[in-house]
Amino acid sequence: MQFLGKSTVPIQGWTEGVPVEEKALQQLRNVASLPFIHKHVAVMPDVHWGMGATVGSVIPTVGAIIPAAVGVDIGCGMMAVRTGIQAEDLPDNLHAIRSDIEAAIPHGRTDNGGANDRGAWGAPSPDADWVFSTKLMDRLQVIVAKHPGIARAAERAPFHIGTLGTGNHFIEFCLDEAGAVWVMLHSGSRGIGNKIGTYFIERAKAEMRRWFINLPDADLAYIPEGSELFDDYVEALHWAQEFAQANREVMMRSVLGVLERHFPGKLGNVDEVAVNCHHNYVAKENHYGKNVWLTRKGAVRARKGDMGIIPGSMGARSFIVRGKGCDESFHSCSHGAGRVMSRGEAVKRISLEDHAKATAGVECRKDEGVLDESPAAYKPIDAVMAAQKDLVEIVHELRQVICVKG
Question: Is 26 helix (H, G, I), strand (E, B) or coil?
Fold first, then answer.
């Protein structure tokens, strides 16, 4: 653990051997200066600057939540399952499997997210009834009745369940150290989570203006506990986190359906080793003798025994891990490798040839549209894992053979 500075409270980091940019450190200092931070701010080795708050940070608060620290991809996270398929079962050419996955799960975004968006279903998802039979839709309507500003996004929610999204969201097939095939995917709460996030971020900023509260960064606008707005935000936040988890479960069912067609009878018991974990969310937890609102912004819960997923970049290894329950990290670990280049910088600096070399052996897109996700845009995953050896132990090491990017 490294001491990275102090404002009102210390900033403690697991960053030895990995770069930490100055603008990310300034963001962390701004967060640590707030009067309701409990004990310290914890920094994961994949830390980098992010919209609202630093990605790879763990923020314990008492009496308030910062909506922009949670962000707009509420409940974003990972799911992974181990199948009974073995490396020797895979064909030499994996393109057909990748194409079938891309056909089975809407991904990307067109038409400004409108009716012709290729990243949504053209009609309510085939799995919408299954998901919303859990009363998710009834609860969403209660939220919309109080906050009509999210109504349009709420109408689109049934069209988004079971869809991947854009950016760094992905679906991968990986092989573990024993040659078993894993399915791993990364996504969140889609358009409705984005709208809930942006809506309450603006409401929080309006409250700061109303009470003449000056902050070191306007994105640190907070909602105080005990207010009606706080209760409404927590209600919507928890709804979006549940939606995100359900979204991953629906996608996983679709991917496994593709695999069943390609490898009939070989899936095995996929529930035996399965992990579904958030890495952008808020939970009420007890740390250092205090009940706190713990915001994990690009971090995974890693209590002693907790299973988690830490993906590398395209072409890099990924890891299934078990938490060690480190108190100082608020029982957390990194959520991935962490960017070292902005998306714009990556497109300018990484060539198609560089990308092809870095993803050799992986069935994936090799075109300009994914240069911002190429391995060189991220920190070396080995360095990230070494920096957090006190936080998690590695259970399985995975290498990608297929990658579908949003």
Answer: helix
pLDDT single digits (tens) 147-171: 999 999 999 998 999 999 998 899 9
Tokens of 362: 């992986």
* Total count of residues recorded for the chain: 406
* The pTM of the whole model exceeds 0.90: yes
For residue 191 the two structure tokens come to 């358009």
Are 28 and 20 spatial neighbours (Cβ–Cβ below 8 Å)?
no
The one catalytic residue among 38, 147, 186, 335? 335
CA dist list (Å): 292 to 2, 43, 200, 217, 323: 23, 17, 20, 22, 20
Q: Where are the alpha helices (DSSP H) in 269-311?
A: none
Domains of the chain listed by start with CATH number: 2-340+378-405 (3.90.1860.10)
Is residue 258 within 8 A of residue 97, CB to CB? The reply is yes
Q: Identify the CA nearest to 316 among candidates 271, 379, 366.
A: 379
Known active-site residue 331? no
315 close to 400: Cβ distance less than 8 angstroms: yes
Q: How far is CA 220 from CA 212, 285, 291, in A?
A: 14, 21, 21
